[in-house]
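Reading is simple: each integer encodes one residue's backbone shape. The lines below illustrate:
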Amino acid sequence: MQKGQIRVQTENIFPIIKKFLYSEHDIFLRELVSNAVDATQKLKTLSSIGEAKGDLGELRIDVVIDEKEKTLTITDRGLGMTAEEVDKYINQVAFSGAEEFLHKYKDANIIGHFGLGFYSAFMVSDKVEIYTKSFREEGGVYWSCDGSPEYELYNVDYDQRGTKIVLHINEESREFLEAERIRSILNRFSRFLPVPIYFEDKQINNTNPIWTRKPADLTPQDYQDFYKELYPYGELPLFWIHLNVDYPFNLTGVLYFPKIKQSYEIQKDKIQLYSNQVFVTDEVKDIVPEFLMLLHGVIDSPDIPLNVSRSYLQGDPNVRKINNHITKKVADKLEEIFNKDRQAFEEKWESLGLFVKYGMMTDDKFLEKANNFLVMQAC
């Protein structure tokens, strides 16, 4: 082990992290796992263009609890970091001054900002350690900090490419040493990430959800199976719409029309918003038109601006464009079904009528199109 270096700063950034940047403590696991995915995906890209040489081996992320040591560890086999990169992405981000830090990141899209997401770990930890080895170098690097304005950074013998982050969980956060709690968080935030994630020696995510695939490659059974994956206890939907746009904004997803009964309890949190397969929220007001909030499914767009808590910003031009596009796609799909098989359409009207009539009352653009497929029923 080479001689270590200890640096002391005059300002502590961690209270800023805890107070302003994150409202939910379980967000830390989403951030750390997402960073590990980014590092893995970047390595794949570098390998594809010849910058990363040799066999990449099994690319996976492991989440491990050690109740005895009171640690939670996230390990990836991605591109890793050099000492200079640790200093750049970890130290300079957090120790540049609290005011500057908060101003710089409070309205930023933090996906891919390793330093900021990484520091969410201090919401639940007394101490955080990093072991990392860059794909470019032979030796490893160690970094640690206990949440004070003091940290250690030195070279170590770490022989696995990638990064291991060890969280020493604080007493107030002991819940994050419980397997069921961690499994629940991973299932919520990481269930569709594109790199295999293992917890308790079992892969917990679907790396290839249907919205990332081409509609032409999918069967009706694929869509129904995915619906069951999202809503295990729900009835099969009436039909679905596959969103796949790459200009003038990026948007993918699948929206399902559920069966609606007279006694149906209206729920408006059944559409999940993702950004590059990272779960953001199930509150999609403004992104999805109000009258379509009864739909189920997922939408994924890296073009929806996210602040540090990953809630979208209202009034953004892309948000309005996406909202209008979804309205158009739904109207076009309803008209297509009406023209193709009017009898089948009318048989579904008990459920569809609620969407259509609500939309006609609240959305002028939808009203124009809906006159083409409105079913008039006798009293």
User: Anything to note?
Assistant: The radius of gyration is 24 Å. Confidence is low (pLDDT under 50) at residues 105-114. The longest strand covers residues 125-133.
